[in-house]
């Protein structure tokens, strides 16, 4: 399945990489796609992710999940 989240604070490709790396560590995540200008982060996973886990990973990377 695929879910798109909004993340604030990313301004460059390195930001996107940090978020991607953290999210990829979550169990079941198979792909992460980041659009820096809009903050849209699309996560593909084998099962539905807990939003708290996604938020924690984004925070760990240094950014914030919206909503
Ligand atoms: Mo650089 Mo993207 O500080 O932050 S990683 S703008």
From TrEMBL:
Keywords: Metal-binding. It comes from the Bacteria. The keyword RNA-binding does not apply. SUPFAM superfamilies: HMA, heavy metal-associated domain. This is Copper chaperone CopZ. Residues 1-66 form the HMA domain. GO terms for molecular function: copper ion binding. InterPro entries: Cu-bd, Heavy-metal-associated_CS, HMA_dom, HMA_dom_sf. One of its GO terms (biological process) is copper ion transport.
């Amino acid at each position: 399945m695929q879910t798109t989240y909004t993340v604030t604070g990313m301004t460059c490709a390195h930001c996107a990489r940090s978020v991607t790396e953290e999210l990829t560590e979550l169990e079941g995540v198979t792909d992460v796609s980041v659009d820096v200008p809009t903050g849209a982060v699309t996560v593909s996973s084998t099962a539905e992710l807990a939003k708290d886990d996604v938020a924690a990973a984004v925070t760990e990377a240094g950014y914030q999940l919206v909503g």
